[in-house]
Structures are given as C-alpha cells and as structure tokens.
C-alpha cells in the first residue's frame, strides 16, 4: 500500500506561479484530501467549484456542495462541509489560482498551471479520475487517455460512464448546476459499483513533484 504523505492540505507544498488577488484574499485553492487515495476528483477553478474562503475544493458554492454531497453519500467524506474529513479521495482543481471577482481563467493561465496539476495528479497516482464539467473532462481525456478523438464531448452522454485511460479509469461528471433528477443518483450508483469490484488499474511510475 502506498504512503505518499499524511498531509491533507496541499500535500506537496505547491506554490502557484502567479497571484492576481488582493493581499487580504486567498491566493489559490490547493489540492485537499487523502494523498494516498484511489479516487481523484478534479474540478475547474475556485470561482466555479468553491473554496475561496475555506481553501478546500468543492465547498461554499452550489456546484461544489452538490458534488460534495455525492462523495459524502458514497462514504468518501464526512464531518464539516467547509473542511470535511476525507478518505480514499483527493480533490483538486485544474486551475488552482484564485482570480479577482468576475474574472475567469484564460488559456494562458490554464497553460501556466498545467505542470503543477499534472505533477500532483501523477504523485497522487489514483486509479479513478473524476473530472467535473466540460473543461476538466476534456483535459483529462486528452492528457490521460487515448479516447478523446473518438468521443464527442457531450457531458450528458459521458456523465457516469467508465472510460479506460493510460493507467487510469476516467468517470466524467456533468456540471452539477445542470444535473437532472437522476444524474446525482447515476454517479452514486457508478461509484458504488466501482467500489464493489477490483478497480485497480495498471500503473506507470508517477512523476516527481518539484
């Protein structure tokens, strides 16, 4: 059994390459959870999925808390909603840096943060990647599978599907703000099914952080 680190917040001490926030605001929302996890939940950026106040991904916003409710139901999280106790799940964002209110990331800032996201993902070395929303799903499918060119990026269709990757299995999650009545249940059922079998993937050697 791997033992990467017992640190819950920003376990590898990442430092963002830029800071566009005011001195009294949070610079970034770093990865959070069980660094030895088999499941890695991947969101977009703090302005969408939350954490600007708590520093914890998938908190504070409607979208973030809807996702958190799913992982709670499966048994990955418990306790406080702003700083949950997490087991077998690591949570992070494709774009960790906070931006001034009303601003959204552009392609150059996603590119600036790519090496940080990739290094952390490979250091966690989870078996199941759970990208939330179109942008995170597109990136994960392009970077960690050979399937992107064969798949239409239709999140309603991809939601809850199992897609084999290069040493990972990817289960996309549609943006929770547009979930229909059965879509939350579909993810819960999929995760429970995965947990009920041997889900381990053939892994390569993780890259070093730093």
Secondary structure: elements and pairs:
Elements: E1 32-33, E2 39-43, H1 46-49, H2 62-74, E3 77-78, E4 85-86, E5 89-93, H3 107-124, E6 128-131, H4 134-144, H5 155-158, E7 163-164, E8 169-170, H6 183-195
Parallel strand pairs: 2-5, 2-6, 6-8
Antiparallel strand pairs: 1-5, 3-4, 7-8
Helix pairs in contact: 2-6
> What's the CATH architecture?
3-Layer(aba) Sandwich
Count of domains: 1
Q: Residue-averaged pLDDT, rounded?
A: 91
Enter the CATH topology name.
Answer: Uracil-DNA Glycosylase, subunit E
Q: Report low-confidence residues grouped into runs of 5 or more.
A: 204-210
Q: How many beta strands in the DSSP annotation?
A: 8
Largest sheet: 6 strands, mixed
What is the distance, rounded to the nearest whole angstrom, between the alpha carbons of the first and last residues?
23 Å
Quickly name the level 1 CATH class: Alpha Beta
- Kindly report the name of the CATH homologous superfamily: Uracil-DNA glycosylase-like domain
Series of H and E elements: EEHHEEEHEHHEEH
Structural class: alpha/beta
How many distinct helices? 6
Strand content: 5-15%
Nearest-angstrom radius of gyration? 16 Å
Largest sheet: spatial strand order: 1-5-2-6-8-7
Estimated helix fraction:
25-40%
Shape: globular
What would you say about this model in short?
The protein has 6 helices and 8 strands, in the order ββααβββαβααββα. The protein has 210 residues and is α/β, with parallel strands linked by helices. Residues 1-20 are annotated as: Disordered.
């Amino acid at each position: 059994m791997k033992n990467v680190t017992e640190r819950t917040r920003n376990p590898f001490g990442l430092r963002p390459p830029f800071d566009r926030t005011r001195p009294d605001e949070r610079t970034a929302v770093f990865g959070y959870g069980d660094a030895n996890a088999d499941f890695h939940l991947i969101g977009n950026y703090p302005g969408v999925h939350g954490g600007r106040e708590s520093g914890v991904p998938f908190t504070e916003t409607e979208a973030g808390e809807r996702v958190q409710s799913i992982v709670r139901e499966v048994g990955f999280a418990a306790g406080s909603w702003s700083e949950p106790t997490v087991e077998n799940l690591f949570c992070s964002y494709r774009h960790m840096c906070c931006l001034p209110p009303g601003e959204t990331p552009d392609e150059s800032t996603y590119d600036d943060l790519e090496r940080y996201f990739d290094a952390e993902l490979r250091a966690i070395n989870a078996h199941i990647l759970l990208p939330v929303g179109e942008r995170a799903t597109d990136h994960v499918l392009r970077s960690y599978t050979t399937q992107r060119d064969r798949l239409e990026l239709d999140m309603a269709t991809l939601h809850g599907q199992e897609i084999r990757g290069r040493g990972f299995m990817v289960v996309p999650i549609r943006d929770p703000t547009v979930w229909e009545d059965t879509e939350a249940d579909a993810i819960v059922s999929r995760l429970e099914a995965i947990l009920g079998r041997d889900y381990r993937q053939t892994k390569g050697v993780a890259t070093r952080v730093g």
